[in-house]
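WARN retry 2 of 3 for item q-0093 after timeout on previous attempt; input resubmitted unchanged.
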Amino acid sequence: MQEILDEPYLHFCIDAFLWMLPEQYLSPEALPAAAPKVISAMHHCIAASALVGNNIIVDHVLREKQWLKECVRLLADFSVLFVGVRCPLEELERREGKRNRSQGLARYQFDLVHTHGIYDIEVDTSTYSPMDCALQIKEALRDIHLSKALSTLRELPKSS
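OK item q-0093 returned
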């Protein structure tokens, strides 16, 4: 994305924020206790960076309802193109096996990350190359004023 966009964009990645933790907090036993504050800090950093005029790309796995709600609340005053990145579970598990990742994370997160079901655009990384997906997103950014996903999510009942 950063290579093809016409303006500079900062890239915020959930993994980069988690990797800021000391190594002893990255274990499967310790991470669940440390992660919520780190994730919330990332959300606030995104909003603060946008507030001073930066364009932002966010690479996030919104597997917790609270994470989505916090992002919606913090980003309510900004133009946001909410992109759903999809791929079949079998392909995700194949990719997971090739990466230095906890096995089973893709399966665990698969049904959680898209439960809200609302995006401005969706791309399928099993059907299109990363560049093709990036070009689809770049095209959608041209009409960001038409983006409605975030405002729709903001209007959902609070119990959702």
